[in-house]
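User: Okay, second chain of the day. Same drill as before: sequence in, structure tokens out.
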Amino acid sequence: EFTYENVNIEQFNRYLPWGYESRGFMTGNIDVKGTAAKPKIISHMDIYQPGFDKINMEDTLSGIFEFKENKLGLNLSLQTKYGQYSGIGFIPLDLNLMIGSRVDISKEPIDFVFTGITNNVEFLPEYFDILDSLTSDQFENDNTSFNYNIRLEISGTLETPIRNGIVLINRASLYLDPIDEPIRNISGSISIIDNQLIINKMTGLLYKEDENSIMSLPFFSNILNLFSSEDLKKQDNLNVSGSMDITEFFNPKFALNLRGDDVSISSSYDLFHGSGTADINVTGRDTMYISGDFI
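Assistant: Same drill. Structure tokens below.
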């Protein structure tokens, strides 16, 4: 057994099977058993400032890595400012790659389960310019409840992964770059079945408070906050339905419909503002097509 400290992952990217750049600094220990033909390697590792493709984090990823029989077993955990994530399973890995042999493992099986509970989905905005943030109105230090509950199962092969899972959303907020107003109070259920993401149900509130209203003054808003009557709350006025093809996970194909009554929106670039009834379709992949009515 031997130990290592602050080893830069980037120098191993050429050997890693997933095809995305990985970053971070590894500290831990390695125990090697077995024979040269059939080694068994176990490492307990902490990765500081982990990064993957477009994602960079200031937290520490901890895990157990076990290599045997051309498979790399993973048992990972990550605690962030907003939530916690875990991953368990295996991916194919052939050590012959590290001595220059040409080995094709793209058709070897993969089996991995990713779970997460969080108040801020930190990784998605890096891949979609339209997204500013997927967050919540909860306090940062409130770790008693979470707005996003994610479970993603990956099977198939490295070349053609198959994704299944579920995403539960409760009282979350979505900030979009083109409009000033956030979509609040988002609740819904999303299923992922064989690389098809299906929105079972999703509702939210898209509404702009009148800044000139006397009820927006601190004295009156504080009084309103003392009441919990549903009559004092603005009701959800937005429904989202449709699906996404996530065969290319970070380049999905959209087929979404947004319908809203008495929605109030204004452009981040002062191109439009107003309220009305919306029936909007969003389709496309690399190029997004938006069509419909806003009356």
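The chain has one helix and 17 strands.

User: Thanks, on to the next one.
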